[in-house]
Specification:
6 helices; Rossmann fold; SAM-dependent_MTases_sf; DUF938; alpha/beta
Length: 199
């Protein structure tokens, strides 16, 4: 049975509106943490100028393949394993990178590896779009996000809603500059970093 996430159905159109602008001049996109595969198929269908590359931990790839098998799009690549706990990054470079609802469910060392890897495979001038809930200077943007953060940490102490200040520190060290901070529905944001020339 195909995996299904209601959140993907709810947020796909608002995210698409952002990606249409941010990836307008791109051709190759790496998605980190493709999850069920719903986003990969939808964005490949809606953004036919892009070659979309899904990736995730090994146990999620069968579900992604089920979604992909129904779409049968030439511009949607077969998913590959990218596990930030033991990363083996591709040798290819990408014009853009997208990740949704990932950094709050992984440990901080994996978040650090994420930014290091993004900087390695993102082309100069390329953009990294990160969607999800965030806090600013230790303050949540809503009570719902605060409760969500508490629930995450109760289930797994190394997870939790990340602070943009901390992410900015990682991004700066990796040669990425924040160019957009976009308000999204349901107290989420899309943060957009651009790789500095020569980084």
């Amino acid at each position: 049975m195909k995996p299904f996430a209601e959140a993907c159905e709810e947020n796909k159109w608002p995210i698409l509106a952002v990606l249409q602008q941010q990836f307008a001049d791109c051709r190759t996109i790496l998605e980190i943490g493709s999850g069920t595969g719903q986003h990969a198929v939808f964005f490949a269908e809606q953004l036919p100028h892009l070659h979309w590359q899904p990736s995730d931990v090994a146990e999620n790839l069968p579900g992604i393949r089920l979604w992909q098998g129904e779409s049968q799009r030439d511009d949607l690549a077969a998913p590959f394993v990218l596990d930030l706990r033991k990363p083996a990054w591709p040798r290819d470079t990408y014009d853009g990178i997208f990740s949704a609802n990932t950094v709050h469910i992984m440990g901080w060392p994996a978040v650090e590896i994420l930014f290091e890897g993004v900087a390695r495979v993102l082309a100069p001038g390329g953009r990294f779009c990160l969607y999800g809930p965030f806090k600013y200077d230790g303050v949540h943007t809503s009570e719902n996000n605060a409760r969500f953060d508490t629930g995450l940490r109760q289930r797994d102490p190394v997870s939790g809603v990340r602070d943009v200040t901390d992410l900015q520190r990682l991004a700066g060290a990796a040669g990425l500059s924040l160019v957009e901070d976009i308000e999204m529905p349901v107290n989420n944001r899309t943060l957009v970093w651009q790789k500095n020339p020569g980084a």
